[in-house]
Amino acid sequence: MTFDELISAKPLLRAVAELGWTVPTPIQRKAIPAVREGRDVVGIAQTGTGKTGAFLIPALERQIGHEGLRTLVLCPTRELAQQVAADARELSRYGELFVGVVVGGESMRRQIRDLRAGVDVLVATPGRLLDLIERGNVDLSSVNVLILDEADRMLDMGFRPQIDAILRHIPKERQTMLFSATMPNGVHAMTLRIMRDAEWVEATPPATVADNMEQAVYSVRLEKKPALLIHLLEQTHWEQVLVFTARKSGADVLVSRLRAAGIEVEVMHGDRDQKERRRALDRFAEGHCQVLVATDVAQRGLDIEGISHVVNYDVPRNPDDYVHRIGRTGRAGASGTAITFMTAGEIAAVKDIDRVLGETIPRISLPEFDYMGTAALTTAKPSATMNRGGGRMGTRRGQDLSPEELEKLLKVG
Questions:
Q1: In angstroms, rounded to a whole number, what is the distance separating the alpha carbons of residues 256 and 92?
Q2: pLDDT tens, 76-129?
Q3: DSSP state, 290?
Q4: 69: how many CB neighbours lie within 10 A of its CB?
Q5: Residue 130 confidence (pLDDT)
Q6: Contact 339, 232 (CB under 8 A)
Q7: pTM of the predicted protein model
Q8: What SS3 class is residue 364?
Q9: What's phi and psi for 107, nearest 5 deg?
Q10: Which of 25, 151, 251, 286 has its CB surrounded by the most CB atoms within 10 Å?
Q11: Beta-carbon count within 10 A of 358 CB
């Protein structure tokens, strides 16, 4: 299938061609026809699979030739909203559509000015949009296409009251699209409440990772985490590395350690203002620094080409977050590597991830960092992609162990 079979609007086809999009992704092939038929659509797809195009292409095609605010996209974070808005502008460049974006952390005065000038497509975070509605600065009465992107994340962040309030300002006679990487009970309940006879399309099963993704778990003593990361960065050829920490304070401490070791690094978390976060993201995307340390504020919405490695410096709190985090690498068919540091206190969390994925992620032990002080727990030989010469790193292949045998050894230790 080609985009010529999915799109009839010539301005949109021209923009797609200039973006270099030639073959629709699975979620695009499944979602776009249903949206074009006027159906409400629930789309389930992991990050990096083209789901933004899956909802923007048919929405913009419906919008072309009509003036006024008719398309509204809600996103959970500023970064994701800005990325979606940028994609919408690229796709609508020949369709004479004006795309606006309203997010927290930026000048409300400028956003009000843009809204008064007139927008056809509005991308927004729920909190800022509701604030503007209550101030009388935006009118949603003409919206006939509503899109909720990463709905599971919006509920996780507590946006349900704001979403419900926004819905009261949008006509009930509309087309609604909801996209999510996972479908927890809260999101499922939302689809039943706000959508009509929705068609469900799914590109990949929930909680799966891309086939081109290599994964590994390093067992490490808590106090050795910074040293292990520095060791890996110095002894391998990792190019662009995104490191996730559980807490903002932990991110700042790690950045200090990396800079002291002479590693170019930026940091991105909720205590940084929008200008600082944008600068960090730009420096990382442009290759001016090797490492970006971030909290989960960056686990979704980052669309940076070339991230070679994702490091879970702290094991994520739930398996779904693991899938979202590592989805920042291995995008659009490229290969990627996901590394997770596991302390003795995080064994259960890693086992939860194994269970949800339906496989045991290979364990790697470096004796000088391992909390057991031995390489006997290694369950898989590091690949060339992970270590780029694993022998030089001092890893030794231990006997392959079943999860039960591994757990028994850990308990003994």
A1: 43
A2: 999 999 999 999 999 999 988 999 999 998 889 999 999 999 999 999 999 999
A3: S
A4: 21
A5: 96
A6: yes
A7: 0.59
A8: strand
A9: -60, 120
A10: 151
A11: 9
Q: Which helix (H) or strand (E) holds 405?
A: helix 403-412
Instruction: Report the C-alpha gap between 95 and 101 in whole angstroms.
Output: 18
Q: Which structure tokens are listed for 255?
A: 């950045």
- For residues 22 and 24, give the distance between their C-alpha atoms in angstroms, rounded to a whole number: 7
Query: What is the total residue count of the chain?
Result: 413
In this structure, are residues 178 and 148 in contact, taking their beta carbons and an 8 Å threshold?
A: yes
Scan for tokens 């000048």, then name that residue. 107
DSSP state of 362: P
Mark the ranges of the chain whose per-residue pLDDT is less than 50: 374-413
Q: H or E segment at 145?
A: strand 145-149
Torsion over CA: 291, 50, 278, 150 (sign)? negative
Full DSSP string of 36-82:
HTT--EEEE--TTSSHHHHHHHHHHHHHTT--S--EEEE-SSHHHHH
Tell me, rounded to whole angstroms, the distance of Cα 29 from its chain centroid. 21
pLDDT in tens, 289-342: 999 998 876 555 555 667 889 999 999 887 877 887 887 776 655 678 999 999
Torsion of CA 385, 391, 396, 402, to 10 degrees: 10
User: Strand 199-202 vs strand 41-44: parallel, antiparallel, or unpaired?
Assistant: parallel
Q: Please, what are the domains in the chain?
A: 3-202 (3.40.50.300), 213-412 (3.40.50.300)
Q: Are 385 and 329 in contact (CB under 8 A)?
A: no
Q: Tokens 């779904």 map to which residue?
A: 320
Q: Distance from CA of residue 348 to its chain's centroid? A: 24
Do residues 213 and 330 lie in contact, with contact meaning Cβ atoms separated by under 8 Å? yes
Strand boundaries in 257-410, DSSP class E: 265-268, 291-294, 309-312, 336-342, 363-364
The pLDDT assigned to 12 comes to 94
Which tokens belong to 329?
């690498």
* Rounded Cα distance, 145 and 87, in Å: 17
Which DSSP string do the residues of 186-247 spell out, in sequence order? HHHHHHHHH-SSPEEEESS-TT---TTEEEEEEE--GGGHHHHHHHHHHHS---SEEEE-SS
Rounded to the nearest 10 degrees, how much is the dihedral formed by the CA atoms of 406, 407, 409, 413?
130
The first and second tokens of residue 216, run together, are: 């590994």
DSSP label of 252: H
Quick one: which of 80, 73, 82 has its CA closest to 163? 73
